[in-house]
C-alpha cells in the first residue's frame, strides 16, 4: 500500500493508519521487535488507570493481601485476551469492531457499539475522577474545578497525534515509567510482608466468592484490569505495523506483538499489585479501611513517616489519569468507525465523551460531597466488568474461524481456556447482580 493510499484511508477511517510504521525487512530479530514496541504500552495504560487505584486501595486496606490472587488471575486473563486481539488484527486484517460489523446484523452491531461506548464513558469517568483528585491533592484545586480542567487534555492529545503515532506511544511509555518508578519507591518505604504477598498471590481464599463485599471488590478488580475497549483498541493498533503479509511474516508479527503486550502487562501487574500491597502494608496493618483516594493520600505520610510518600502517590495518580485518556479516545474512534462506519472529528468526539464523564462527577460532588467520588470510581469498574462478555465472546468466535484466520486460528485448547474465562466472568457478574438486588 502506498503512502498516499494510507493517508486517504486515515481520513476515511481513524487516525490509526494501517501499515504506517515501517518494520525492517532484514537485520536482527531484536531490531525488528523494536518496531513492534508501543501498542502493548498503549493498551496496558488502561490496566493501571485510576479505576484500578480505587479497587486495589479498598481491597488491600479492607482485606489485606487476600485479593492479590484476583489481580494475578486478571492479569493472566488480560495477557491471553490481548494476544488474541493481536492475532485477530494481524491474521485477518480486521479489528474486533470491523469483524463484528461484517458478521452480525445491524441491530446487533448498534447494541454492541452502545455497550462499548458505555464502557468507554465508564473508563473516562475513572480518568476524570483520578486526575481531578490528583490536582486537588497536589495543588489544592477543588474537585469540581479539577474535573473541568481535564477537558484541556484534548488539546495535548491532539498535539501529540499531529506529531505522529510514535510520539503518542513515547508519551504513554514515559508516563508508565514515571508511575512504575513512583511505586518502586513507595513499596521500599512501606516494607510489606513478603510472606503475606506470597500467600496472597498463591493461596486463593474461598471467602472471595462467599463474602459479598469481597466479591464486589474482586469483580471491580477484574473490570478495572480487563477492559472491554482495550480489546477493540489492540486489534486495531497492531495493524499500524507494516509487516510482511505472507504466513511467515504474520507469524513473526504475532510473536513480537504478543511479546510487546506481555512485557507491558507485566509492568501493569506490578503497579496494580503494588497499589494493593501498599494499602495492605500501610492501612490494613494499622486497622484502617480506605475507600477514598484522598484519604489514602492524607494517611500515607503519617503512617509511613516519609513526607515524599504522599507526593509520589499524587504524582503517580496524575500520570495515570493523563495516560489513560489517550487510549479511551483512540478506542472511541475505532469502535464508532468499526461498528457504524461513522467518523467524527477527534476533538468533537473527545469533548462529548469527556463531557458525559464529567457530569456524574459534578453531580456527586455537589449532592453527596467530595468524599463520595471513591464509590463512584469503584462502581465504574464494576460497570466495565459487566460489559466484558459482550467483547470477549465475539473475539473468541472470530479467532476460532479458519476462513478468517487461516493457519493462525486458535486450537481447541486455547478455545477451551478462553471460553472458561468468559464463563467465569459471566458467573461472577450474575453473582454480583444477585447480591445487588438482594441488598435493595
Automatic annotation (TrEMBL):
GO molecular function: cadmium ion transmembrane transporter activity; manganese ion transmembrane transporter activity; metal ion binding; symporter activity
Keywords: Cell membrane, Ion transport, Membrane, Symport, Transmembrane, Transmembrane helix, Transport
InterPro entries: NRAMP_fam
GO cellular component: plasma membrane
Pfam family, one: Nramp
Membrane topology field: Multi-pass membrane protein
Residue stretches spanning the membrane: 29-48, 63-90, 110-133, 139-160, 172-194, 214-233, 254-283, 303-330, 351-369, 375-396, 416-434
Domain of life: Bacteria
Record localization: Cell membrane; Membrane
Major place of residence: membrane
KW Membrane (keyword) present: yes
Keyword Transmembrane: yes
Any GO BP annotation: iron ion transmembrane transport
Similarity field: Belongs to the NRAMP family.
Main function: H(+)-stimulated, divalent metal cation uptake system.
Name the record gives this protein: Divalent metal cation transporter MntH
Organism expressing this protein natively: Kushneria avicenniae
Amino acid at each position: 500500500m502506498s503512502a498516499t493510499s494510507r493517508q486517504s484511508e486515515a481520513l476515511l477511517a481513524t487516525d490509526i493508519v494501517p501499515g504506517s510504521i515501517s518494520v525492517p525487512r532484514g537485520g536482527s530479530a531484536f531490531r525488528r521487535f523494536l518496531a513492534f514496541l508501543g501498542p502493548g504500552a498503549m493498551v496496558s495504560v488502561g490496566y493501571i488507570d485510576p479505576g484500578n487505584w480505587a479497587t486495589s486501595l479498598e481491597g488491600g486496606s479492607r482485606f489485606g493481601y487476600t485479593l492479590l490472587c484476583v489481580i494475578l488471575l486478571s492479569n493472566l486473563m488480560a495477557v491471553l485476551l490481548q494476544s488474541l486481539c493481536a492475532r485477530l488484527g494481524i491474521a485477518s486484517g480486521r479489528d474486533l469492531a470491523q469483524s463484528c460489523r461484517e458478521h452480525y446484523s445491524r441491530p446487533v452491531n448498534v447494541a454492541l457499539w452502545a455497550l462499548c461506548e458505555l464502557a468507554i464513558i465508564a473508563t473516562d469517568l475513572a480518568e476524570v475522577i483520578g486526575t481531578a483528585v490528583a490536582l486537588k491533592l497536589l495543588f489544592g484545586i477543588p474537585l469540581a474545578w479539577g474535573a473541568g480542567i481535564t477537558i484541556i487534555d484534548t488539546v495535548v492529545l491532539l498535539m501529540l497525534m499531529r506529531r505522529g503515532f510514535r510520539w503518542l506511544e513515547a508519551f504513554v511509555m514515559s508516563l508508565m515509567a514515571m508511575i512504575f518508578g513512583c511505586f518502586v519507591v513507595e513499596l521500599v518505604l512501606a516494607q510489606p510482608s513478603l510472606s503475606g504477598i506470597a500467600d496472597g498471590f498463591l493461596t486463593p481464599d474461598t471467602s472471595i466468592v462467599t463474602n459479598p463485599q469481597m466479591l464486589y471488590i474482586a469483580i471491580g478488580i477484574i473490570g478495572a484490569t480487563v477492559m472491554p475497549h482495550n480489546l477493540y483498541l489492540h486489534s486495531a493498533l497492531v495493524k499500524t505495523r507494516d509487516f510482511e503479509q505472507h504466513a511467515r511474516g504474520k507469524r513473526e508479527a504475532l510473536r513480537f506483538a504478543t511479546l510487546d503486550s506481555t512485557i507491558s502487562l507485566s509492568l501493569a501487574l506490578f503497579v496494580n499489585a503494588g497499589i494493593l500491597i501498599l494499602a495492605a502494608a500501610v492501612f490494613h496493618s494499622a486497622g484502617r479501611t480506605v475507600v477514598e483516594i484522598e484519604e489514602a493520600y492524607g494517611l500515607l505520610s503519617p503512617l509511613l513517616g516519609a513526607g515524599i510518600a504522599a507526593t509520589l502517590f499524587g504524582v503517580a495518580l496524575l500520570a495515570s489519569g493523563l495516560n489513560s485518556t489517550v487510549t479511551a479516545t483512540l478506542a472511541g474512534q475505532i469502535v464508532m468507525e468499526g461498528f457504524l462506519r461513522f467518523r467524527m472529528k477527534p476533538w468533537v468526539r473527545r469533548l462529548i465523551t469527556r463531557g458525559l464523564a464529567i457530569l456524574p462527577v459534578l453531580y456527586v460532588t455537589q449532592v453527596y460531597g467530595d468524599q463520595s467520588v471513591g464509590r463512584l470510581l469503584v462502581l465504574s469498574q464494576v460497570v466495565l466488568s459487566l460489559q466484558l462478555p459482550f467483547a470477549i465472546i465475539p473475539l473468541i468466535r472470530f479467532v476460532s474461524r479458519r476462513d478468517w484466520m487461516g493457519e493462525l486460528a486458535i486450537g481447541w485448547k486455547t478455545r477451551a481456556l478462553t471460553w472458561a474465562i468468559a464463563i467465569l466472568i459471566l458467573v461472577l457478574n450474575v453473582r454480583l447482580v444477585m447480591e445487588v438486588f438482594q441488598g435493595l
